[in-house]
Design goal:
alpha+beta; 5-stranded mixed β-sheet; 6 helices; 38% helix; elongated; binds FE2/S2 (inorganic) cluster
């Protein structure tokens, strides 16, 4: 029996219409259905932040949402957000501060940091740490990531 459900949404500004299994997560739909592999899958239960995407402008965990829940929504992934240049300065700061090693956590870190700086442009180091506390990095020890976000906030404040 075919239980697939038709959904229509926009992903990175492009209209998408697909039949999906009701149990498929949003991140699996993005990765396997649309080949947008920048959203990573770590814990698969909402803890690590590797699967972070934006849904209707708010960051969300792609492993905790079903694809069918996004019917009619505007979904943005790191591919789309990086493609517009929105996080170019953050990406540069991450590179300059050595804020990534394997890069597995980086898409989620960038989207979460961008969300914070949009809400709190002058976020302190402590506020940055708190905002990123739901995004795990197994490589860098976090200090360089916080520095990259803090320096981006400073630079945006001067611009
Ligand atoms: S894979 Fe979604 S939070 Fe870890
Ligand atoms: S750079 Fe490897 S997990 Fe963060």
């Amino acid at each position: 029996m075919d239980l697939a459900i038709q959904i229509s949404l926009t992903v990175n500004g492009v209209a998408v219409s697909r039949r999906v299994e009701p149990r498929q997560s949003l991140v699996d739909f993005l990765r396997y259905g649309l080949e947008l592999t920048g959203s990573h899958v770590g814990c698969e239960h909402g803890v690590c932040g590797a699967c972070t995407v934006r849904v209707d402008g708010a960051i969300a965990r792609g492993c905790l949402m079903l694809a069918v829940q996004c019917d009619g929504c505007r979904v943005e992934t790191i591919e789309g957000v990086a493609g517009t240049g929105e996080v170019f300065d953050l990406q540069q700061a991450f590179a300059q501060e050595n804020a990534l090693q394997c890069g597995f956590c980086t898409p989620g870190m960038l989207l979460t940091a961008q969300d914070l700086l949009a809400r709190k442009p002058a976020a302190s180091a402590q506020e940055i740490r708190e905002a990123l506390s739901g995004n795990y990095c197994r490589c860098t020890g976090y200090h360089a990531i916080v520095e990259a976000v803090r320096k981006t906030a400073e630079a945006r404040g001067r611009a």
